[in-house]
Amino acid sequence: MKTQKNLRLALPYFDAKELLAVKKVLDSGYLTQGPKVAEFEQTLKKYIGTRHAFAVTSATTALHLSLVALGIGRGDEVLVPDFTFPASANVVVQTGAKPVLVDIDLNTYTMNLEDAARKITKKTKAIMPVHTFGLSANMSPILKLARNHGLFVIEDAACALGASYFGKMCGSLGDTGCFSFHPRKAITTGEGGMITTNDKKLAEKIILLRSHGGIRKKGRFTFYEAGFNYRMTDIQAAIGIVQMAKFDRILKKRLKLAKIMTAALKNIDGVTVPFIPNWGEHTFQSYILLLDNKINRDLVIQKMKAKNIETTLGTYALHDQPYFQNAYGYTKGQLRNSHIAYKQTLALPLHMKMDEGTVRLIISALKKFL
């Protein structure tokens, strides 16, 4: 692959199998939530190792549905890591609860446990650890903290399909796990998400709320809740089933490419490569570098773009965003580590259409601009 062709940050991995699967659904005439959704849910449930899995429209709606099903609402607080996509905190706002932003550990980019413990109040009802960029948060102390204070744990596993924590799959550790199938993820259904849980009563609540709050009996619905339309279509699920059949191969190649990148970059001054803790394997939904403060990250992005190589920031420091400052009084740079990560992380391309030659082109270009 040549840089002149515009090297994308992420690309979905499709072939004729996805087209055939979609065609079969279209030919069936059954397009909304149906047998393919049920099959996709069974596939994910088996892979994650939970008793229940429910397909929804996105990881955002998975998080929102989890919060509502757990009864979180006005007057409550939820601990959310500050360095994350805004959806993680937005869903808390949408329930009427308050997101309490927690600083991160700069090695893993996941929730800082000491800061989380300091921010628990009588109003705190849940902790939402984010498995950032495909690496599990340090879940044992998070779960212990939650138990000690009677808190729910909602895993934001949007980026973490395939990630594990001491052998247990992300998405199976908390009260719920929430996954994304957006095109920047390792597998995709275009848009789409999944909730996993081991709690039977919670599963029943999720089923009810996912589809308008109604239960169908004898050809008609009776509505018990003011629910949502968060159903995945059979078209999306058919794609997801095919993608899951490829997932082990996709993950294996991503890990191989990431290993090559790390070997080439680990000894460069001013560059910190991804950290792999002892608790689990990194799945590299994104390959993220942390650049020294002396390096202008945004200028590097511009120069890489001029070479037709797409790069971008890692993700966002929510406390630096106008909404969270105006609504909750945060000030720029208040959460130090998150602020540093927001300003200095750099995401490099990583996808199935790359090879070792592509990695060498990326590294060669990047070294010139650091």
From TrEMBL:
Family: Belongs to the DegT/DnrJ/EryC1 family.
UniProt-annotated catalytic positions: K185 (proton acceptor)
InterPro entries in alphabetical order: DegT/StrS_aminotransferase (IPR000653), PyrdxlP-dep_Trfase (IPR015424), PyrdxlP-dep_Trfase_major (IPR015421), PyrdxlP-dep_Trfase_small (IPR015422)
Record key words, sorted: Aminotransferase, Pyridoxal phosphate, Transferase
Protein name per its UniProtKB record: Glutamine-scyllo-inositol transaminase
Superkingdom classification of source: Bacteria
GO molecular function annotations of the record: pyridoxal phosphate binding; transaminase activity
Lineage: Bacteria, Candidatus Roizmaniibacteriota
Cofactors: pyridoxal 5'-phosphate
Entry-linked Pfam families: DegT_DnrJ_EryC1 (PF01041)
BP terms from Gene Ontology: polysaccharide biosynthetic process
Native organism: Candidatus Roizmanbacteria bacterium GW2011_GWA2_37_7
